[in-house]
Amino acid sequence: MAARRKPMSEINVVPYIDVMLVLLVIFMATAPLLTQGVQVDLPKAPSEPIKEAQDDPLVISMRADGAIFLNLGMSKAEDEGTRVTVYSLEEQAAKVLRARPDVPVYVKADHSLDYGKVVGVMTVLQKAGAESVGLITDPPDLGEAR
Question: Class for domain 58-135, per CATH?
């Protein structure tokens, strides 16, 4: 008479742990590659980083084609923000500034964009109630002549 085997009632979880570790490594490697907002080619300027890192700044991004995006905060890094026109920007920025008057305001504009358009957006932000507006730039390459 052959010996009967007892049914196995355990699940082997080792393959699942292996898969989870591989996924963890993939997410850890790709997370720093995510950037906030709209893809713009920022001008290069020697500048110091902002000392007081506040959460959720108001960032106005301007692409080379003139499109304007309003993004509140760094919590949604993959979100490019809300596309606005220069006419609706004042109203939307004023809402944010009324709710949080101490919010830092930054403009991130493509380096090929006309200077007048950037100044126009900064004027609209000033009318909306922004006390100061910062410009976001990339640090210059060390090999470039200044």
Answer: alpha beta
